């Protein structure tokens, strides 16, 4: 596996960042983090010609890789700073976690599919991302051994935020997640944990695969 790129890909990546700006992404730290991550490394070889297109792409285990503009918007909504620890629920290809690794002190990512976690961890090692670790587990349970977290990003849909995730979020912390029925259009929300409860801001309509309990038995 290699991360080398020629002039053509450098130009493509520059155009890619410009398109994200045109779609309303303004946070320069987020744009820089995305620029630092070679998206083709996370895409199936048969789909790499679409790596910088603003479309969702299929990955293994029946999962999907969100379109770049959505990755950017979710990252921007999370508001990560360099001293924070982030939990990502739903590792997938590892692309979102790789982006977060350039913004946070530490990134913990969990997925129910062992094969996805293994492939993502290999990509992190190739890129020298020493502050991100992937685990196999039930994302609805979070990662209590590594809690508490300043930020939590959920990349699968549920009807509500699992209680375990709220418990593992620090006071004043932020969760960004898609809420709604898996078979319907969902709402991407930003939730802040407050002393008196939580405050919610609805961000946009989205479609995500469902958040499923348990770890996969075979994949």
Please render the helix and strand layout as text.
Elements: H1 7-22, H2 28-36, E1 57-58, E2 64-65, H3 68-78, E3 85-89, H4 95-101, E4 106-111, H5 114-126, E5 132-136, E6 149-154, H6 163-168, E7 169-179, E8 186-194, E9 197-206
Parallel strand pairs: 3-4, 3-6, 4-5, 6-7
Antiparallel strand pairs: 1-2, 7-8, 8-9
Structural account:
There is one protein chain. With 219 residues, this protein is an alpha/beta fold. 28% of the residues lie in helices and 26% in strands. It is built from six helices and nine strands, in the order ααββαβαβαββαβββ. A seven-stranded mixed β-sheet has the order 5-4-3-6-7-8-9. A two-stranded antiparallel ribbon has the order 1-2. The longest helix is centred in the N-terminal third of the chain and has 16 residues. It is globular. The model has no long low-confidence stretch (mean pLDDT 93).
**Count of beta strands:** 9
Q: What structural class do the secondary elements suggest?
A: alpha/beta
Question: How is the biggest beta sheet arranged?
Answer: 7 strands, mixed
Strand content: 25-35%
User: Based on CA inertia axes, which overall geometry fits?
Assistant: globular
Tell me the strand order in the biggest sheet. 5-4-3-6-7-8-9
Estimate the helix proportion, in percent. Answer: 25-40%
């Amino acid at each position: 596996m290699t991360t080398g790129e020629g002039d053509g890909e450098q130009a493509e990546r520059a155009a890619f960042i410009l398109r994200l700006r045109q779609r309303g992404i303004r946070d320069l730290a987020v744009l820089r983090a995305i620029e630092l991550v070679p998206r083709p490394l996370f895409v199936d070889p048969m789909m790499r010609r679409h790596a910088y297109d603003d479309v969702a792409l299929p990955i293994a285990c029946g999962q999907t890789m969100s379109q770049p503009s959505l990755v950017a918007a979710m990252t921007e909504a999370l508001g990560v700073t360099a001293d924070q620890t982030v939990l990502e629920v739903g590792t997938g290809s590892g692309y979102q976690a790789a982006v977060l690794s350039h913004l946070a002190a530490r990134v913990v990512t969990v997925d129910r599919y062992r094969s996805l976690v293994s492939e993502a961890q290999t990509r992190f090692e190739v890129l020298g991302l020493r502050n991100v670790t992937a685990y196999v587990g039930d994302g609805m349970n979070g990662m209590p051994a590594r809690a508490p977290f300043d930020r939590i990003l959920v990349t699968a849909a549920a009807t509500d935020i699992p209680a375990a995730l709220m418990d593992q979020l620090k006071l004043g912390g932020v969760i960004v997640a898609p809420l709604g029925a898996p078979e319907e259009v969902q709402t991407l929300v930003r939730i802040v944990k407050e002393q008196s409860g939580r405050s919610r801001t609805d961000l946009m309509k989205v479609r995500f695969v469902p958040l499923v309990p348990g770890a996969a038995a075979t994949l």
